[in-house]
């Protein structure tokens, strides 16, 4: 379970052992997949496979943003709350703009989504400013933001889900295109975007450089704070999009959704080999981590695990991944 | 009171094939202050490490008084009365002055369960006033004191161990003039008590004030010893350098065009009113001791730090208020003295490290990929003779010299007009060092101006068209062309 480092960071000479080391998480995933395929009743059906993808779509999308953020040397613990607040803002705006009409127009819905995304940009920018001007570590500021945003979500809904969406709105979360759930397309788009950013843009290289050695990056003329702020905004926006997907899934703006989602997102990154010390990791690695989590949860359900036991397994898995992550970094 | 003599006979230390100190035989008379001098790498630190018990000699004998000693640990040296105050302070910043002085031997009460704070502070206060440091409160946290005061605390701590021999490793290198005075008063008190003091320093000018004898090391061997009253600057430099063949210093024609002009640059507390001009294609050296403000000057020019006052003009344009990124775009480049922490991302590939600075200029519409960058990487690997089997290996896999070349190559890829090089020869083997200077020289003949900062004054003598000397934040001397020679530079920087 190691950093599936790309040529962006560094490549070791091609040896058999090295190949195993770099792709160990993928190999573990494949082995686990085969095991579940042989033992889990109904695992290999197309519907179940698509279901796995649909479940991981939102946490996966956010995890791709989080990957960039952790590589640049920061973190965002408020993504779960951001999902909730974004769902509530969208629903509230739709209700407000349509004055509670039965079937709000498309424009109104789009405006609602835009305001949620706009809000996410502001929050990301705000965290960036806090980090830069005042020096608040994002670990702290996003922890504060986690509580704040959860409160904002509750204030918006006043504890009662807002049901304001038009009848077609379910499509975003539960619809299918060519038999594939719509969120899976969003996941693919998020993957493609972050993959290209990390591998093929100057910004991406700067993200690695800043996370790898901030002083060297600064003295290379890289605007390190802008780079960090962009990553904060990307993560925040992905969380807001996730909130829109969830609001469509449950067809309302509910302030209690996505509690603790940040844990799932960050563990996917860690399992995928993103170094918590920054500078190392890849979008592909995180994708493997996300898939692994998805397959594991699905398998435990198919095997009929006690839901509470599932939580324990998940927690232990994260601990194991962190352990390996640290061991690799100290090597 | 006459103190205890120190004798050394054939003291030798080898690190692998390197003879750090070779056959050192000398005696230091008791109760005196003995200055020990030498260039970087002359064996001073090795000597200190052996006498303080930090490392064992390969062969030879050390005698404290009439007794032969063999220190296996610093603890043993301390028990024999040999106490060392190192260059880097070893105080705990968050603890009080009293706690630091008695660290590891705090007075206890109630059967050893509790710390006797009253006794601790009283005894610390007594020690401080005995040593003339009345103005230091034993309750004060060490981190609130200036570096000079911390140095005083450090020496009071050492003196509380009742030393017979005190080793001071460059105690003044980080101090201001007024603080040096207080330190000297302290040393004189200890001397009056009969402590034998070995005083290592780079500042030749202060030696007559404090030392009774001066002993020099050169290339790991004993180079001579003189009573202080007979040691003038010439004698001292002769001991340090021996007979040096005059350097063959090629004098080149530099352009007349001034590319960079610094007017009255100040940055408290490092720089005051520094002015100089840099011509096109010129290699300008800045000589100065540690703490003379060299790095701060380069940082200021590059835009990584702000000057309090002064003006910087580059090719007729005032760049004083320009940001680092803007200066980089105008053609300034900076290779840090600390390549591990500020120059390279060691975990990332050599390839990535060679295109970090020019990233945006190589990228097309913000997009970049390995193939697009490869020609730039290959060019620098070729031109700078970087020994590398695969550019995708991490930078940490390279030797120090090759890492330094990567730092230089990274910036040469930005096609700079002015290259600021901070200690380009630090931690680099001799051959690679020469290659790096060769590169600077070649680039200069193509019109690149460079400012090179180095403590290795021989290096400056080798590669510079002109050298200015920075001392306590001001320019105190200038040498041009054939005037540049290492001995003169040393005399000027150590004044």
From TrEMBL, chain A:
Keywords: Cell membrane, Membrane, Transmembrane, Transmembrane helix. InterPro entries: ABC_transp_permease (IPR001851). PANTHER family: ABC TRANSPORTER PERMEASE PROTEIN YPHD-RELATED-RELATED. It is a multi-pass membrane protein. It is found in: Cell membrane. This is Ribose transport system permease protein. One of its GO terms (cellular component) is plasma membrane. The chain crosses the membrane at residues 26-46, 52-72, 79-98, 104-124, 136-157, 177-197, 230-250, 256-277, 284-305, 311-328. Its main location: membrane. One of its GO terms (molecular function) is transmembrane transporter activity. It comes from Celeribacter baekdonensis. It holds the Pfam family BPD_transp_2.
Automatic annotation (TrEMBL), chain B:
Residues 6-244, 254-495 form the ABC transporter domain. SUPFAM superfamilies: P-loop containing nucleoside triphosphate hydrolases (SSF52540). Pfam families: ABC_tran. SMART domains: AAA. One of its GO terms (molecular function) is ATP binding. PROSITE patterns: ABC_TRANSPORTER_1, ABC_TRANSPORTER_2. Keywords: ATP-binding, Nucleotide-binding, Repeat, Sugar transport, Transport. CDD domains: ABC_Carb_Monos_I, ABC_Carb_Monos_II. InterPro entries: AAA+_ATPase, ABC_carbohydrate_import_ATPase, ABC_transporter-like_ATP-bd, ABC_transporter-like_CS, P-loop_NTPase. This is Ribose transport system ATP-binding protein. It comes from Celeribacter baekdonensis.
């Amino acid at each position: 379970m190691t950093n599936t480092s790309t040529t962006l960071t560094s490549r070791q000479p091609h040896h058999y052992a090295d190949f195993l080391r770099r792709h160990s998480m993928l190999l573990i995933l494949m082995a686990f997949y085969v095991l579940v395929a042989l033992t889990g009743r109904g695992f290999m059906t197309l519907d179940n496979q698509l279901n796995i993808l649909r479940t991981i779509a939102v946490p996966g999308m956010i995890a791709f943003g989080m990957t960039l953020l952790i590589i640049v040397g920061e973190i965002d613990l408020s993504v779960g709350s951001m999902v909730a607040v974004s769902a509530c803002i969208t629903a509230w705006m739709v209700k407000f703009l349509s004055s509670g009409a039965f079937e709000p127009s498309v424009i109104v819905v789009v405006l609602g989504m835009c305001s949620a995304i706009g809000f996410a940009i502001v929050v990301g920018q705000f965290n960036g400013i806090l980090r830069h001007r005042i020096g608040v570590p994002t670990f702290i500021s996003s922890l504060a933001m986690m509580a704040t945003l959860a409160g904002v979500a509750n204030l918006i809904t006043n504890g009662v889900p807002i049901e304001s969406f038009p009848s077609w709105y379910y499509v975003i979360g539960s619809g299918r295109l060519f038999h594939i759930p719509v969120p899976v397309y969003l996941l693919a788009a998020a993957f493609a975007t972050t993959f290209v950013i990390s591998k093929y843009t100057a910004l991406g290289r700067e993200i690695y450089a800043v996370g790898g050695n901030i002083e060297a990056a600064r003295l290379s003329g890289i605007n390190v704070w802008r780079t960090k702020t962009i990553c904060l905004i990307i993560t925040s926006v992905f969380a807001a999009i996730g909130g829109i997907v969830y609001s469509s899934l449950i067809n309302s703006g509910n302030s209690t959704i996505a509690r603790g989602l940040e844990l799932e997102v960050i563990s996917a990154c860690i399992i995928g080999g993103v170094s918590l010390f920054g500078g190392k990791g890849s979008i592909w690695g995180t994708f493997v981590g996300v898939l692994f989590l998805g397959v594991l949860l699905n398998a435990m359900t198919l095997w009929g695990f006690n839901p509470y036991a599932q939580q324990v397994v998940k927690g232990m898995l994260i601990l194991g991944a962190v352990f390996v992550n640290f061991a690799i970094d100290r090597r | 009171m006459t103190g205890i003599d120190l004798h050394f006979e054939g003291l030798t230390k080898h690190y692998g094939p390197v003879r750090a100190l070779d056959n050192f035989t000398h005696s230091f008379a008791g109760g005196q202050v003995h200055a020990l001098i030498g260039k970087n790498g002359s064996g001073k630190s090795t000597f200190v490490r052996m006498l303080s018990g930090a490392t064992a000699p390969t062969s030879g004998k050390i005698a404290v008084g009439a007794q032969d000693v063999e220190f296996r640990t610093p603890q043993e040296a301390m028990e024999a009365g040999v106490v060392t105050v190192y260059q880097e302070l070893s105080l705990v910043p968050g603890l009080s002055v009293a706690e630091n002085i008695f660290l590891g031997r705090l007075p206890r009460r109630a059967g050893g369960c509790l710390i006797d704070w009253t006794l601790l502070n009283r005894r610390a206060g007594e020690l401080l006033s005995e040593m003339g440091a009345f103005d230091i409160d034993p309750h004060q946290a060490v981190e609130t004191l200036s570096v000079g005061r911390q140095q005083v605390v450090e020496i009071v701590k050492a003196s509380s161990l009742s030393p017979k021999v005190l080793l001071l490793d460059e105690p003044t290198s980080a101090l201001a003039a007024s603080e040096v005075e207080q330190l000297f008063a302290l040393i004189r008190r200890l001397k009056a008590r009969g402590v034998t003091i070995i005083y290592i320093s780079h500042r030749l000018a202060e030696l007559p004030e404090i030392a009774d004898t001066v002993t020099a090391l050169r290339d790991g061997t004993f180079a001579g010893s003189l009573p202080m009253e007979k040691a003038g600057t010439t004698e001292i430099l002769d001991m340090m350098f021996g007979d040096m063949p005059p350097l063959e210093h090629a004098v080149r024609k530099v352009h007349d065009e001034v590319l960079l002009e610094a007017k009255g640059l100040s940055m408290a507390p490092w720089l005051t009113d520094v002015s100089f001009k840099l011509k096109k294609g010129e290699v300008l050296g800045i000589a100065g001791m540690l703490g003379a403000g060299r790095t701060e000057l380069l940082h200021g020019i590059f835009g990584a730090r702000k000057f309090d006052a002064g003006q910087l003009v580059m090719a007729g344009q005032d760049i004083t208020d320009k940001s680092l990124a803007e200066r980089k775009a105008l053609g300034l480049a900076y290779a840090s003295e600390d390549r591990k922490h500020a120059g390279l991302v060691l975990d990332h590939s050599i390839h990535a490290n060679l295109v970090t600075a020019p990233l945006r200029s190589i990228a097309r519409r913000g997009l970049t990929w390995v193939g697009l960058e490869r020609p730039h990487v290959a060019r620098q690997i070729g031109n700078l003779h970087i020994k590398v089997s695969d550019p995708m290996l991490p930078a940490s896999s390279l030797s120090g010299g090759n890492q330094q070349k990567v730092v230089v190559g990274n910036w040469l890829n930005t096609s700079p007009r002015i290259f600021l090089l901070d200690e380009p020869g630090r931690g680099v083997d001799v051959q690679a060092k020469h290659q790096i200077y060769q590169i600077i020289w070649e680039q200069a003949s193509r019109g690149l101006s460079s400012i090179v900062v180095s403590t290795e004054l021989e290096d400056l003598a080798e590669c510079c068209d002109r050298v200015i000397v920075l001392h306590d934040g001001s320019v105190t001397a200038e040498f041009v062309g054939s005037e540049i020679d290492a001995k003169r530079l040393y005399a000027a920087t150590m004044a």
